[in-house]
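Question (not urgent): is this output format expected?
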Amino acid sequence: MSNPTPEQQAKVTRHWVPVAGHLYVDPDGSESWYRVIRVYEGEITEWVDDGGESFATESGDVWPDTRIPCYWGDYATTDGLLRTARSAHDDPGLHTMPFDADHPSLGWRAWSSLEDCWKGGTEQEALIAAIEAAPEPK
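Got this back:
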């Protein structure tokens, strides 16, 4: 998957459900990255940067809200798209499937239990389409 558009990234980030293991980057395109170590009640509380330095909110460190999940370049973080799409639609039954199980390169669909369907060339693109269609978080 290629890098998302700024509009896609903004929508996904507003709905994102962080978990330990996710990779975040700075939106300015710098090479810096941050791996989440611990999340408490939906908030990132401990992380490590690309230099191996550890940070924690208990120590007074602040997680900048400008960092974005790198779901287009990190498999552990890509898995968060499904969790985020389910949360954004308040639908634990939301799931994905290829148009043709024998030929997933033909495209993917994200289905909700309400029979809504979003399409994409890849599974990630179908999930991003579902997240983009979701109402804004409260």
